[in-house]
Fold this protein.
Amino acid sequence: MEPLSSFEIFGHILYQLLPVWIGLIAIFVISIATKSKTGLYGKLFDSPIGMIGFGLVTFWVLTALFGDMIMTHDPLQQISGMKNKLPGTPTKGAEADDFQWYLLGGDNLARDVFSRVVAGSRIVLKIAPLATLFAFMVGITLGLPAGYYGGKRDTLLSFLANLILAFPVILLFYLLVTPEIVKTGLPKYMAAVLFLFPIIFLVVLWQSRFYTQPQKRNLFVALTVLIGGWIYLGIAWNADPIGIISMQANILIVFVAVVFVNSPTVFRIIRGLTMDIKTRDYVAAAQTRGEGPWYIMLWEILPNARGPLIVDFCLRIGYTTILLGTLGFFGLGLESESPDWGSTINAGRRLLAIYSHPALPPALSLMSLVLGLNLLADGLREQSLRD
Amino acid sequence: MGSFIFKRIGVMALTALCLTFIVFYLTNLYPNLEKLAKTQGNMRMTDKQVVSWLGNRGYSQNVFKKYGEWLGVVPSLQTTTEDGTVLSRCSRAGMAPADIPGYCGIMQANWGYSTVFKEEVWNIVTKRLGLTSWLMLAVLCVMVPMALIVGILAGMKEGSRTDRTLSTFSIATTATPEYVSGVIFIILFASSKGGLSPLLSDWGLLSSKTLFKGSATSAMADITFANFTLPVMALALYGMGYIARMTRASMAEVMTAQYIRTARLKGVSFKNVVLKHALRNALIAPFTVIILQIPWLLTGVVIVETLFNYKGFGWALVQAAQNNDIELLLGISVIAVVVVLVTQLISDIGYVFLNPRIRVS
């Protein structure tokens, strides 16, 4: 079989991504049709920058979702004779119902670059948003009281946050993610502490709001503790009694490292916002009504800080993606055959001057996802400032 | 002002102590020490031999005592083995037992001995830091003017087409970490098979094989345009976007101020308003950001030096961490932490000096 021309490669990739295009068009048509009713989300479609950002992010989310339909080969399968082959090379020994080409060529271990990039998007989109969410939970739970009460509590927490922020990120990664440290179980204990925060956050949230309606509160708190505790046992201790939820040990470590690095910054943002908002009249009104401090923090201050927080959330997912790439680039955490973008760039960079095709697609993918998130954040900021 | 600086320095010293202790604790965890014993002594040591190897060299002591020894406030443990040699962290090859000092730590300017480079940590750190400071200097010289120009041009007329284009450009640069831009640059400019170099040499415009070099190893001895451009650009590009956005925001805010409108109404030309009235006030905020960007560059330096094989400070960090070189890693962290804290202090003090509206009580 003949190798494909650049034009044919492009056509085949477009065709492979067909489910993504259909999903993208459907989402855009529905969103634009209902944009007057969906608030801030709808306003996003008034700004071209926000739309481009949203489009890029949705593209990658859909690619990760439909990954199984898009991938042409198994991302870990090595086919002999395909080592460092150029894009469009026919697959050696392909059966009639196999895919006939390596669309973006083969890497130095003769794996399909195209499928690995698609598989990589799954890993990145699985870890980055979730890790950012956890970092926000930690930052919110600690930042609200620090900003609201001030005083000694604030001094101590701020000192600790600055302590972590003063570490160069890479040094911290090297200290936390090496196999020797993993052997001591330190990342596991850190996971045990960090993953408690979402549960604490939710319990306090229900308690402060519904303590006058014990029935409702008991129901919510019980549900949170049951479901949260179940997930917590599964993720942090790998001790899920039913055995459904678990997390691979090395992904857990990467996850913990990224949450740990991100939470002090979130803490500082929340603390600053809280200190600003607590001087407002509606907070004074709530205090006069005799509301408890946690009610004021969680139900008066937090909802009013949502604008900057949503924007920062988008930016931070992008930054977390970059951090994950950095970890992969230094070969930390994830196993070396993992198709995540950082590891793939790391594997491809050694032969960069001769074979550029294995490293370029993951690099461009990472850039486009982060760019999409940044543009989305910019669009959101612009639209939320407008009113 | 005096008491403010004094207080800040106090907090700084406390932070530095805490941070170095954390690094010390993490690098001195038992699995790390076990690995050290096996690489320094013998790969096939039994567990018992490992324990005695570590015990003889003072590694099995309480972590606080070891930290004190490393700082130089506690005398280092000396053990005399059966054959009469004295083991101590202060001793070096060829040193007579009587000459071994009792205290040897940071306070005595003794930073320890690197097991990977077989050299005094202090010598390695200063040599590598020298190399990296050239890189940093070049990056700052490229990044700061570029970022300020982009930011000022964008913030001058908020919402104009220039503003939108430049803002999108700066967002794009913040989405391009060093390992992405570095890879793209090498493919575009430093690959003999793809990118621009084959094209240019076909046209006869290029005397060498590639436009730029994909490796900066030769820049350690002799910095040239060809071997230093790509690492500097990769670093400058990622850091630039953030400064440019801050400058833009600050410029846009100043341009809406009353005194600018007054100046415009008095008939001052737009150029003069920007250069003489707006710029001075608009540059206060970016100053802090630029200074705080320096510790941030440290992370980038590690990536770029690894990618371009420039054997500076960041490269040494990776070597120390990957080879479990405890003393070198500690030395490097001390420097890194000091850089971070000093830049924070400078940015705070500078901000107070530049902004007459802020008075520290």
Observations:
- Chain B has two domains: 30-108, 121-354.
- Chain B touches chain A through 57 residues (CB under 8 Å).
